[in-house]
Amino acid sequence: MGVTEQLGRFAAETPSSAIPRAAIESAKLRCLDILGVMVAGSRHPSALISLDTARRLGGNPIASVVGHGDRTSVELAGYLNAVSAHALEFDDYTRMVTHLSVSMVPGALALAEEQGASGAQALEALIVGFQVGTHVAKGLRPWLFDRGWHPNGILGAMGVAAAGSRLMGLDQLKTRMALGIAASEGSGVRKNVGSMGKAFHVGHGVRCGIFAALLASRGFSVDPNVIEGVEDGVEGHERFGMADTFNGVGNYDLDKMVRGLGEEWELAANTTVVRFHPGATGAASAIDGMIDLAIEHDVRAPDVEAIELECTAQVMSIGSYREATDGHKARFSLPYSMAVALIDRRAGLAQYTDERVRRADVQALMRRVRVSVPEDLKRHRGQWGEGVNWGEMRLAVIMKDGRRFTAARSSARGWPEQPASWDDVAEKFRECCDGILPPAQAEEAIAAIAQLETLDNVRALIDLLRPRA
User: What pairs with residue 333 in β-bridges?
Assistant: First the structure.
């Protein structure tokens, strides 16, 4: 069997009993995290513009828009909720994969609501789709990212297509059709990172995955082996499967896409990072280091001569903006994150608003931040290298009176080395819902997510994530 067939058979034919309990519990934690961030992100300009556009387009009102009273078509609901979930750069990240939960949670729940599915069915689809997305990711990365693609819009489409196929009970051939359609839809260029475009990539991928599953369920047919190309010496259309097209000929590992398939479950492994600081994931260890250092030594910005941060090349490339005048670029600016973490002793949602970014105190301090990649960290290949910790960092704050305070870290709170508990994420959920949902309603939602597999209809949870009249 080829790669696409193996993935299609896995998604369609894996029995429910094969899914380990650890994956179910992890999936609920992913839902708690993503749904909270989704509520908070529903007020972001990118989400509001998208909602206004969806209202203009109209649609069969069968799926809910989280954070608002609207219902719309299933693919638009998936798009809107995914944009909200990624707009704040506060969702989780799975190592050596991508921000996959932010696609799988809104995609699976929108389709589950449209199908009238139970909580258990939604979780099963989410887990299976997550695994398909994971396997495709491991075969395409790091080349996919290095060629300038933002992986979320591509990998998310594949995972959601698999989840939708599972929810609708499609057989392996129709599931492969869904994967084939999604492969032709996914997109996203890295130049748009640091703008509303990044959240669009995620929403677009979810919408693509949903639409692909719906088309496949009705008999729309495409090439059944879309991932792998055909080496026939002609270099015709069949040569350019998904892997060749996105990565360039030969820049992938098809074996990784099926290795351990049906035996390994990514959600049962300790590989997903919960972000407690909005923005570039790898910078979190440096942010935690700065907060701890500032508190321990009572460092005040007017007394600081310079800040020196040494980090890995991958963290430098993702947190690459030297200047920031809005919340989008601030999330990917190491100088800004170091400056605001020192001044505010925290780096939460409030620290990445446009208003906070533009204030004089943080703008002045970030000009005194120097970021470099030392020789011993150049060998790191970011989060892709086997066993390599991309968050390795060294920090020095040089005071005007000559004192020098230093810190070194290799992980952050919420990373697999310091995993987040249910209570940690529940507290983050409450923070995200503040001012949008009443506290009592937020607590109801937390309780419903904890018992998601017992819900007869997933709408019982989704209704808790929308303001009550």
Answer: 320
